[in-house]
Design brief:
With about 120 residues, the chain is of the alpha+beta class. About 55% of the residues lie in helices and about 15% in strands. Strands 1-2-3 form a 3-stranded antiparallel beta sheet.
């Protein structure tokens, strides 16, 4: 194998590595907030990112409908976990504000009945 062939082979390998690295880099997209939601022609369009540099997620509504039971279940469970975590943090802070108070802190519902409803799930 000549040096030119070896260099060409190395270039080909490096190009393949570059393509793999680019693919791995873009495996996940985190959407913190959405700014547009609309449906058209059997698709749900979800706009996210900066308004000056909007990105779009387009979801087939047939598939979205099939996925909704799982999505709703998981969102409710994760939201309940986060509410419980924040409630625990609030309780900890209240204890620190009055360290002389040895009584057990009362539950502070964020919304009346929310925790009970979530616990029933």
């Amino acid at each position: 194998m000549t040096s030119t062939e070896r260099l060409q082979q190395k270039i080909t390998e490096l190009e393949g590595d570059l393509l793999e690295a680019r693919a791995e880099k873009n495996q996940f997209t985190y959407i913190h907030e959405t700014h547009h939601l609309y449906c058209s022609d059997g698709e749900m369009h979800i706009g996210y990112g900066d308004l000056d540099d909007s990105k779009w997620l387009v979801y087939n509504t047939d598939q979205l409908f099939k996925d909704l039971p799982f999505i709703i279940n998981q969102v409710v469970k994760e939201n309940a976990k986060m509410q419980e975590w924040y409630l625990d943090k609030i309780k900890d802070e209240l204890k620190e504000l009055d360290p002389e108070d040895k009584t057990e802190t009362k539950e502070i519902p964020l919304f009346e009945g929310t925790l009970e409803k979530l616990n029933d799930l």
